[in-house]
Specification:
Rossmann fold, alpha+beta, 330 residues, Methylgl_synth, kinase, four-stranded parallel β-sheet, ten-stranded antiparallel β-sheet, methylglyoxal synthase activity, Tumour Suppressor Smad4, transferase
Length: 330
């Protein structure tokens, strides 16, 4: 059989974080997979501190790439996905971070030991469309910024935990680095006073310790924070947490880890939950396509597990089926 016409072959682009990946192993895996699939040599684009992937993915799109492979952490995936929104160019994920949040929610293998198989799947897999969350955040100086996220946006405990985590410890021990930060955040008794509006409805006032807006709901450690969230359902799932004291936090933790993470994953467990007469008062769930929130003071904010500084509010909306992602055929 004659070799493929390389000049006419499709070309991938690899957007990679040099701090997160084993670059030599990655290059070897991509070279083997692109050759076996009859693709041209890939374009390699390195992320920087100032640009974690959006500019590189835009460069790939302008260069005519038929596939963009994001090799890095959640920030690289978020930035690359933001740039590819609406282009129809598939995004393949090579998980190389601490959380690997979108990869987990897509059911992808997050083990670094399977890099070669992950790269093969990037060239041979199938494409699905997922939602993208668009968000406009307001800073304390009243300036506004537009961003996108693929997994979650959060205020309160969620964001403070990320802001208080030692970056070097996170690099060395991964998700365990958050344990100490969780402890410091849990003793924070300050409550968020919020005003919010869902899908353009009536403005409501509330108090909460944590507010999370999710495009999908799974976290590392079998934590199912948003049990009804789907990455392609066209709506947000929102949770507010307002526990009171240690007992309240214990009840929230049981609800998230045991009820959401274990019982909701099987039919018998779901029936048991349906028999429960009272919902967990400290947890409130909402669903909608648009969500606006105002705070009475600046608070730490996070997008897809990355610290995003202080905000006084935000407006978020869903862009349905706006991003194409590549997943294994199986």
């Amino acid at each position: 059989m004659s070799p493929p016409d390389v000049a006419a072959a499709r070309r991938a682009a690899v957007v990679f974080n040099p701090v997160k990946v084993d670059i030599e192993r990655l290059r070897a895996a991509v070279a083997a997979a692109e050759s076996a699939s009859g693709w041209a040599k890939s374009l390699w684009l390195e992320t920087t501190t100032d640009d974690p992937g959006q500019g590189q993915a835009e460069t790939a799109a302008h260069a005519g790439a038929a596939l963009v492979i994001a090799a890095g952490g959640d920030g690289t995936v978020r930035a690359s996905g933001s740039a590819l929104r609406g282009t129809g160019i598939p995004l393949a994920i090579v998980p190389a971070g601490t959380g690997n949040l979108l990869a987990r929610n897509l059911g992808l293998d997050v083990s670094s030991g399977h890099l070669e198989a992950t790269i093969t799947n990037a060239f041979t897999g199938v494409d699905i469309a997922i939602d993208v969350a668009l968000i406009q955040i307001t800073r304390p100086d009243r300036s506004v910024e537009d961003h996108a996220f693929l997994v979650m946006a959060g205020l309160g405990l969620d964001a403070k935990m990320i802001a208080h985590t030692n970056p070097e410890l996170k690099r060395r021990v991964g998700w365990l680095a958050y344990v100490g930060a969780i402890g410091r955040a849990l003793v924070d008794k300050e409550v968020l006073r919020i005003r919010y509006r869902l899908d353009g409805g009536e403005e409501r006032a509330s108090r909460a310790h944590t507010v999370i807006v999710g495009n999908c709901g799974s976290l590392p450690g079998n934590v199912l924070l948003l049990p009804d969230a789907e990455v392609d359902d066209g709506v947000f799932d929102i949770v507010t947490l307002r526990p009171e004291g240690f007992g309240g936090w214990a009840r929230v933790w049981i609800g998230i880890v045991w009820e959401n993470g274990v019982l909701r994953r099987n039919a018998v467990g779901r029936r048991l939950l349906n028999l429960r007469s009272r919902p967990v008062r400290a947890m409130r769930y909402l669903r909608g396509r648009q969500f606006e929130l105002l705070l009475d003071r600046p608070e730490e904010f996070e997008l897809d597990g990355d610290e995003f500084g202080l905000v006084t509010g935000f407006r978020a909306r869903v862009d349905p089926a706006a991003l194409v992602v590549r997943v294994p055929r199986s």
